[in-house]
Write a structure and sequence with these properties.
Blueprint lengths: L3 H15 L3 H11 L4 E6 L2 E6 L2 H10 L1 H12 L4 E8 L2 E2 L4 E4 L60 H12 L9 E5 L5 H15 L5 E5 H14 L2 H9 L3 E5 L9 H16 L3 E6 L11 H7 L3 E5 L4 H15 L5 H10 L4 H17 L6 H14 L6 H12 L4 H4 L5 H17 L4 H7 L5 H17 L1 H15 L1
Parallel strand pairs: 2-3, 6-9, 6-10, 7-8, 8-9
Antiparallel strand pairs: 1-2, 3-4, 3-5
Helix pairs in contact: 1-4, 5-6, 7-8, 8-9, 11-12, 11-13, 12-14, 13-14, 15-17, 17-19, 18-19, 19-20
Length: 481
């Protein structure tokens, strides 16, 4: 029998969906309303569970009126909507309550004490003690590229959370729950593009703010130069006056630059305490970044870590179409589909394949056809150093043991399947930059602990079982050929 709160929420969803029109409306409904779970209905108050603090803030900032109309229509003018926010795999003890209607929205938040994000000061008037009196603002080159905007950053399931978070940060830098905002993911998935785009959008929304983009290598070199010149204090003070600081590819500090990390740690603290925005990119999640100082790594976990995943085929097609529009190029749909289906590693290689095809067509005076695309893709893939993917590892392992690929995705506990699955996880961790969560997801929907256990098991068997050692050596040779 359907629970009453489920029926009420289903009616609300129906109203919400009817009021979100077009493709963007459908995407918004899928992203921001489908994940919501109704929990209970008591005394005309509906409690809904949302996945995170970020999720709650986004709903309140963008869809508060729509939610108010939906709950009021369903339960009447005295209805209340109450949020339960999932935090650290538990639910907040004191849910956030929004009374509808109200003379001014009243929300009470009693967050868990061990969530570092909530230790931020709410005082927006903290003064920077290093700013010279009388100097109100510094003018600097932001080092942002006008080519990398949110408008030409193609949204898909692979990056929707990161893009949405980026837009929220640009709208209210330093005043959301996602500070720092850490964008992480593999090579060529758009981390630099998105970080740059957030900076440009921030400058558009807040032209009075100082925004600075810097690579981790630039930051390190500047710090070393300052040390040689005896201007380290000036270096630190300069960065502490920035309103939005974007540091790209922070993983390059791993196992090097201890003093650089220490300087950045103090700059981070000053900016964070002053409610200034910090945006960081990395090829790994904070929990997987090895070689960073522990206290710096812990700071990276304060805000939101949003992962950018490899784009699915629909997103890849949209990326190609966007690139073609920008370049004023037209191409048959079957050619676009062929490229999108066959170049599936990352956005950079996808765009590279498109440029190669256009060059082939222009230089050889040939029409762009599916045959030309096929020839180009064959050459492009062969001439490009193969990036080992989890899919490729699964294929090689399954071919080696002569088992179907879908067996690795199954829940079977047959010894030969379990060993093949463990070997796949082992090589995925060793040869790819995928997170443990992504590896587990693609190997039978396992969690990261299972992946770690599989890697340890393979390593132990390699030391004690000669046959297993032979399998590992032969598979590794095939994967690297």
């Amino acid at each position: 029998m359907e629970q009453e709160y489920q029926r009420v929420w289903d009616e609300c969803l129906g109203f919400i969906r009817d009021n979100l029109s077009g493709k963007e409306g459908e995407d918004a409904f899928t992203t921001w309303f489908k994940p919501i779970v109704p929990v209970k209905l008591e005394a005309n108050t509906l409690t809904i569970q949302v996945p995170s603090q970020f999720f709650y803030e986004w709903l309140e900032e963008n869809y508060a009126e729509l939610l108010k109309d939906a709950i009021r229509l369903t339960l009447g003018p005295t209805a209340c909507l109450q949020y339960s926010i999932v935090m650290d795999k538990s639910i907040s003890d004191s849910p956030i309550t929004t009374r509808i209607p109200s003379t001014g929205r009243q929300s009470t938040i009693n967050r868990m004490k061990d969530v570092p994000m909530n230790q931020r000061s709410d005082n927006h008037d903290i003064l920077n003690p290093f700013v010279i009196p009388g100097i109100q603002k510094i003018r600097i080159n932001s080092q942002l590229s006008s080519a990398y905007t949110l408008n030409n950053f193609v949204e898909g399931e692979c990056n929707r959370l990161a893009r949405s978070a980026g837009y929220a940060v640009a709208d209210r830098p330093g005043k959301t729950a996602f500070n720092p905002l850490m964008l992480h993911g593999g090579v060529g998935l758009g981390k630099t593009h998105l970080a740059n785009a957030i900076g440009l959008q921030t400058k558009e929304f807040h032209p009075e703010m100082t925004v600075l983009y810097v690579t981790s290598e630039q930051f390190m070199q500047q710090y070393m130069d300052a040390g040689r010149n005896g201007t380290t204090s000036d270096f630190v003070h300069f960065y502490e006056m920035v309103d939005v600081l974007i540091v790209d590819d922070i993983q390059f500090w791993a196992n090097r630059g201890a003093r650089t990390q220490e300087a950045f740690f103090h700059i981070f603290n000053t900016l964070h305490q002053a409610n200034k925005q910090i945006i960081i990119t990395s090829d790994k999640a904070p929990s997987e970044l090895q070689g960073l100082e522990t206290r710096l790594n812990s700071r990276l976990k304060w805000g939101l870590a949003a992962e950018l995943l490899p784009p699915d085929v629909e997103t890849r097609m949209n990326i190609l179409k966007q690139k073609m529009r920008n370049d004023g190029v037209e191409m048959p749909d079957d050619v676009i589909e062929y490229i999108a289906y066959n170049i599936n590693t990352n956005v950079r290689e996808l765009e590279g394949a498109l440029i190669s095809l256009m060059a082939q067509s222009s230089l050889n005076h040939r029409d762009i056809t599916i045959d030309l695309a096929r020839q180009m893709v064959d050459k492009f893939v062969k001439s490009t150093s193969r990036e080992v993917t989890i899919d490729y590892i699964q294929k090689v392992v399954c071919d080696y043991f002569n088992i179907p690929i879908d067996s690795i995705q199954s829940r079977t506990r047959k010894r030969e399947i379990v060993q093949a699955r463990q070997l796949t996880m082992y090589f995925a961790k060793k040869l790819t930059k995928s997170s443990l969560a992504i590896i587990g997801l693609q190997c039978g929907n396992k969690d990261h602990a299972t992946v770690l256990h599989a890697c340890k098991t393979v390593a132990n068997l390699a030391d004690t079982d000669k046959q297993f050692r032979l399998w590992i050596d032969e598979l590794e040779k095939k994967l690297k050929d």
